[in-house]
C-alpha cells in the first residue's frame, strides 16, 4: 500500500504504509521528482454541472452535464462555467480546451425556471434602486461567467451538436473556434422571450461573422439557422456528420494547438482579442510590448532548434 503526498510543485513523496497503522509504520521512501500530468489534477475540477477530463496530453475536455434539462443554464452552471475556465486559465498543465455538451443537444440556453425567478425580482415590493442593483449584479455575474472563455488564455474550441439556443450563442461566441454536427441548429432567441441578449451575443457575434446585416437579421427575428448557414456566415468553421466525429476532430485540433509553444499560443490569443477591439496601431504596440519580453522565452530557441533538426519540440508548462 502506498500513500503519495505533494511536497511542492511537481514534487511528490511516496510512502509505504505499514500493515497495522497508517501513520506509525510509515517507512519513508526516496523523494522523487516528476512532471505532473493532466490526469493528476482533475480532482481540482469537482463540478456538479460540468465534467472535466483530460483525454490527451495538455488537452482538457469540459462537458456541460445537465442532459435531463438539455444543458440549460441554471445558477449552478452559470457559476461553475466561470470558475472552471478561470481555473483552466491558471492551470499550467492545460494548453487547449474543448467544450461540448452531454445528451441530446449542446444547450437549450438559460434555464427557464431560473429566468422566472429573475422575473420575481421585478414583481417584488423592494425599492426600485434595490431591484436594479440585484439585476445588475446578476447580469454582470452571468456575463463574467461566459467571458471566462475569452479571458482564458488557452484556446477554447466549442463542439456543438443538436442545438445551441439563446445563452448558448452567447457562450460559443466567446470561444475561439466553433465546430458543429450537420444536424445542429442555432437560435438567438432572446427577443422571443421579450429581452435583449445581454451576456455577449450582441457584442461578439457580429464581429465574429463580419456581416452586420446578417447579424442584425438573426438577432431581430430569432430565426433558427442551420449548420450550413452557420458555416456560410463564418460562425462555424467545420461540420461533422455525427457527435463522435465532431468531438474527435475538436480534440485533435486541441492536441495540435497543445503541441506548440504555450508562450506563443497564449500571446497569440491575447493579441487577437486585444486587436479585435483596438486600432491596428494600438494592436501593433500591444504585441511589441508583449514580445519584447516573450522573444526572450526559451520556447523560441527550442522551436527554432526543433525545426532545423526536423524534430518536434517539448515545451515547459506555462
Ligand atoms: C439575465 C439573463 C441572461 C441570459 C439570457 C438568456 C436567454 C436565453 O437563453 S433565451 C433561450 C431560452 N431557451 C429556450 O427558449 C429553449 C426552451 N426549450 C425548447 O424550446 C425545447 O426544449 C427544445 C426545442 C430545445 C427541445 O425540445 P424537446 O421536445 O426535444 O425537449 P423538451 O421535452 O422540451 O425538453 C426536455 C426537458 O428539458 C427541459 N428544458 C428544455 N429547455 C429548457 C430550458 N431552457 N430551461 C429549463 N428546462 C428546459 C424541459 O422542460 C424538459 O424537462 P422535463 O419536463 O423535466 O422532462
UniProtKB/TrEMBL annotation:
InterPro entries: ClpP/crotonase-like_dom_sf, Ech1-like, Enoyl-CoA_hyd/isom_CS, Enoyl-CoA_hydra/iso, Enoyl-CoA_hydra_C. GO terms for molecular function: delta(3,5)-delta(2,4)-dienoyl-CoA isomerase activity. Its main location: other. The keyword Lipid metabolism applies. It is found in: Peroxisome. Pathway: Lipid metabolism; fatty acid beta-oxidation. It comes from Armadillidium nasatum. It catalyses: (3E,5Z,8Z,11Z,14Z)-eicosapentaenoyl-CoA = (2E,4E,8Z,11Z,14Z)-eicosapentaenoyl-CoA; (3E,5Z)-octadienoyl-CoA = (2E,4E)-octadienoyl-CoA. Keywords: Acetylation, Fatty acid metabolism, Isomerase, Lipid metabolism, Peroxisome. It comes from the Eukaryota. Transmembrane segments: none annotated. Isomerization of 3-trans,5-cis-dienoyl-CoA to 2-trans,4-trans-dienoyl-CoA. This is Delta(3,5)-Delta(2,4)-dienoyl-CoA isomerase, mitochondrial. GO terms for biological process: fatty acid beta-oxidation. Belongs to the enoyl-CoA hydratase/isomerase family. Gene3D superfamilies: 2-enoyl-CoA Hydratase, Chain A, domain 1 (3.90.226.10), Lyase 2-enoyl-coa Hydratase, Chain A, domain 2 (1.10.12.10). One of its GO terms (cellular component) is peroxisome.
